Write the C-alpha coordinates for this entry.
Amino acid sequence: MTLENLNVHIFHAINSLAGKNPYLDAFMIFSAQYIVYLIPMVILYLWFGKKGDKGFSLFLFLSTFLSILVSAGISMVYYHPRPFAEGLGTLLISHAPDSSFPSDHTAAIFGFALPFLFFRKYRWGTIFVALATLVGYARVFCGVHFPFDIIGGFLVALIVVVVLYILREPVFSGILRIVSVYEHHFAHHRDD
Protein backbone atom coordinates (compact mmCIF):
# COMPACT_ATOMS: atom_id res chain seq x y z
CA MET A 1 0.00 0.00 0.00
CA THR A 2 1.44 3.38 -1.03
CA LEU A 3 1.46 6.34 1.37
CA GLU A 4 -1.20 8.07 -0.71
CA ASN A 5 -3.42 4.99 -0.58
CA LEU A 6 -2.89 4.81 3.19
CA ASN A 7 -3.80 8.49 3.46
CA VAL A 8 -7.06 7.90 1.56
CA HIS A 9 -7.81 4.70 3.48
CA ILE A 10 -7.49 6.41 6.89
CA PHE A 11 -9.49 9.38 5.57
CA HIS A 12 -12.38 7.07 4.62
CA ALA A 13 -12.22 5.30 7.99
CA ILE A 14 -12.70 8.62 9.82
CA ASN A 15 -14.92 10.48 7.36
CA SER A 16 -17.29 7.53 6.87
CA LEU A 17 -18.82 8.45 10.25
CA ALA A 18 -19.87 11.89 8.93
CA GLY A 19 -23.50 12.47 8.05
CA LYS A 20 -24.79 9.63 10.24
CA ASN A 21 -25.59 11.44 13.48
CA PRO A 22 -26.61 15.13 13.54
CA TYR A 23 -25.29 15.63 17.10
CA LEU A 24 -21.91 14.11 16.29
CA ASP A 25 -21.78 16.14 13.07
CA ALA A 26 -22.56 19.36 14.95
CA PHE A 27 -19.88 18.63 17.57
CA MET A 28 -17.27 17.89 14.90
CA ILE A 29 -18.18 20.97 12.84
CA PHE A 30 -17.83 23.10 15.99
CA SER A 31 -14.51 21.46 16.83
CA ALA A 32 -13.16 21.85 13.30
CA GLN A 33 -14.08 25.53 13.00
CA TYR A 34 -14.37 27.22 16.39
CA ILE A 35 -11.96 25.70 18.96
CA VAL A 36 -9.16 27.77 17.36
CA TYR A 37 -10.86 30.92 18.70
CA LEU A 38 -9.56 29.91 22.13
CA ILE A 39 -6.09 30.90 20.95
CA PRO A 40 -6.44 34.71 20.94
CA MET A 41 -8.58 34.63 24.09
CA VAL A 42 -5.95 32.72 26.09
CA ILE A 43 -3.06 34.78 24.71
CA LEU A 44 -4.81 38.05 25.61
CA TYR A 45 -5.74 36.72 29.06
CA LEU A 46 -2.12 35.75 29.74
CA TRP A 47 -0.93 39.20 28.60
CA PHE A 48 -3.48 41.38 30.41
CA GLY A 49 -4.68 39.13 33.28
CA LYS A 50 -3.87 39.82 36.93
CA LYS A 51 -1.53 36.82 36.99
CA GLY A 52 -0.33 37.72 33.51
CA ASP A 53 2.75 36.17 31.98
CA LYS A 54 3.82 38.47 29.16
CA GLY A 55 6.84 36.37 28.19
CA PHE A 56 4.82 33.20 27.77
CA SER A 57 1.98 35.08 26.09
CA LEU A 58 4.47 36.49 23.57
CA PHE A 59 5.91 33.01 22.98
CA LEU A 60 2.41 31.63 22.32
CA PHE A 61 1.62 34.47 19.92
CA LEU A 62 4.84 34.02 17.93
CA SER A 63 4.69 30.22 17.86
CA THR A 64 1.07 30.30 16.65
CA PHE A 65 1.68 33.07 14.10
CA LEU A 66 4.86 31.50 12.70
CA SER A 67 3.23 28.05 12.52
CA ILE A 68 0.42 29.52 10.40
CA LEU A 69 2.94 31.45 8.26
CA VAL A 70 5.12 28.38 7.57
CA SER A 71 2.07 26.20 6.90
CA ALA A 72 0.62 28.75 4.46
CA GLY A 73 4.02 29.08 2.78
CA ILE A 74 4.22 25.32 2.20
CA SER A 75 0.67 25.33 0.77
CA MET A 76 1.70 28.04 -1.70
CA VAL A 77 4.60 26.01 -3.14
CA TYR A 78 3.11 22.51 -2.83
CA TYR A 79 -0.43 21.76 -3.98
CA HIS A 80 -2.29 18.71 -2.77
CA PRO A 81 -6.03 18.56 -3.56
CA ARG A 82 -8.55 18.39 -0.74
CA PRO A 83 -10.64 15.21 -0.45
CA PHE A 84 -13.79 16.82 -1.85
CA ALA A 85 -11.82 18.16 -4.84
CA GLU A 86 -11.11 14.51 -5.69
CA GLY A 87 -14.75 13.55 -5.15
CA LEU A 88 -13.96 11.72 -1.92
CA GLY A 89 -15.97 11.49 1.28
CA THR A 90 -18.78 13.44 2.90
CA LEU A 91 -18.23 17.20 3.18
CA LEU A 92 -19.76 18.92 6.24
CA ILE A 93 -18.02 22.31 5.89
CA SER A 94 -17.92 24.48 2.77
CA HIS A 95 -14.31 25.22 1.85
CA ALA A 96 -12.33 26.62 -1.05
CA PRO A 97 -10.58 23.91 -3.10
CA ASP A 98 -7.12 25.22 -2.24
CA SER A 99 -4.18 23.07 -1.16
CA SER A 100 -4.92 20.77 1.74
CA PHE A 101 -1.33 20.15 2.90
CA PRO A 102 -0.48 21.02 5.59
CA SER A 103 -3.52 21.91 7.69
CA ASP A 104 -3.31 25.57 8.78
CA HIS A 105 -5.85 24.99 11.56
CA THR A 106 -3.79 22.12 12.94
CA ALA A 107 -0.53 24.05 12.66
CA ALA A 108 -2.10 26.99 14.51
CA ILE A 109 -3.64 24.99 17.36
CA PHE A 110 -0.53 22.85 17.92
CA GLY A 111 1.66 25.96 17.63
CA PHE A 112 -0.42 27.26 20.51
CA ALA A 113 -0.73 24.03 22.53
CA LEU A 114 2.79 22.57 22.43
CA PRO A 115 4.54 25.45 24.25
CA PHE A 116 2.53 24.64 27.39
CA LEU A 117 4.34 21.30 27.52
CA PHE A 118 7.74 22.82 26.69
CA PHE A 119 7.34 25.27 29.58
CA ARG A 120 6.20 22.48 31.93
CA LYS A 121 2.63 23.76 32.22
CA TYR A 122 1.51 20.15 31.96
CA ARG A 123 -2.10 20.42 33.14
CA TRP A 124 -3.05 23.08 30.59
CA GLY A 125 -0.69 21.55 28.04
CA THR A 126 -2.49 18.22 28.23
CA ILE A 127 -5.88 19.92 27.82
CA PHE A 128 -4.79 22.05 24.86
CA VAL A 129 -2.94 19.22 23.10
CA ALA A 130 -6.09 17.08 23.49
CA LEU A 131 -8.16 19.92 21.98
CA ALA A 132 -5.59 20.33 19.17
CA THR A 133 -5.85 16.60 18.42
CA LEU A 134 -9.64 16.93 18.35
CA VAL A 135 -9.39 19.83 15.89
CA GLY A 136 -7.17 17.76 13.59
CA TYR A 137 -9.47 14.75 13.80
CA ALA A 138 -12.55 16.93 13.20
CA ARG A 139 -10.99 18.48 10.08
CA VAL A 140 -10.71 14.98 8.60
CA PHE A 141 -14.15 13.97 9.90
CA CYS A 142 -15.70 17.02 8.20
CA GLY A 143 -14.08 16.13 4.88
CA VAL A 144 -11.76 19.14 4.39
CA HIS A 145 -8.43 17.38 5.09
CA PHE A 146 -6.60 14.12 4.70
CA PRO A 147 -4.90 12.59 7.78
CA PHE A 148 -1.42 13.41 6.43
CA ASP A 149 -2.43 17.10 6.24
CA ILE A 150 -3.00 16.96 10.00
CA ILE A 151 0.33 15.24 10.64
CA GLY A 152 1.99 17.88 8.43
CA GLY A 153 0.39 20.70 10.43
CA PHE A 154 1.54 19.09 13.67
CA LEU A 155 5.12 18.71 12.41
CA VAL A 156 5.23 22.34 11.21
CA ALA A 157 4.11 23.50 14.66
CA LEU A 158 6.57 21.19 16.43
CA ILE A 159 9.54 22.47 14.40
CA VAL A 160 8.52 26.11 14.93
CA VAL A 161 8.08 25.62 18.69
CA VAL A 162 11.43 23.78 19.04
CA VAL A 163 13.30 26.55 17.16
CA LEU A 164 11.60 29.31 19.16
CA TYR A 165 12.25 27.46 22.42
CA ILE A 166 15.97 27.20 21.60
CA LEU A 167 16.10 30.93 20.74
CA ARG A 168 13.83 32.04 23.59
CA GLU A 169 16.45 33.78 25.77
CA PRO A 170 17.99 36.27 23.31
CA VAL A 171 14.84 36.89 21.27
CA PHE A 172 12.19 37.17 23.96
CA SER A 173 14.20 39.05 26.58
CA GLY A 174 14.98 41.68 23.92
CA ILE A 175 11.35 42.00 22.79
CA LEU A 176 10.08 42.14 26.38
CA ARG A 177 12.60 44.90 27.20
CA ILE A 178 11.24 46.95 24.30
CA VAL A 179 7.64 46.30 25.42
CA SER A 180 8.52 47.27 29.01
CA VAL A 181 10.11 50.56 27.89
CA TYR A 182 7.07 51.32 25.72
CA GLU A 183 4.61 50.52 28.55
CA HIS A 184 6.59 52.66 31.00
CA HIS A 185 6.68 55.53 28.52
CA PHE A 186 2.94 55.19 27.80
CA ALA A 187 2.08 55.07 31.53
CA HIS A 188 4.29 58.12 32.21
CA HIS A 189 2.51 60.17 29.53
CA ARG A 190 -0.91 59.04 30.76
CA ASP A 191 -0.09 60.37 34.24
CA ASP A 192 0.89 63.81 32.91
Q: What stands out?
A: The mean pLDDT is 89. The domain at 3-191 is CATH 1.20.144.10 (Vanadium-containing Chloroperoxidase; domain 1).
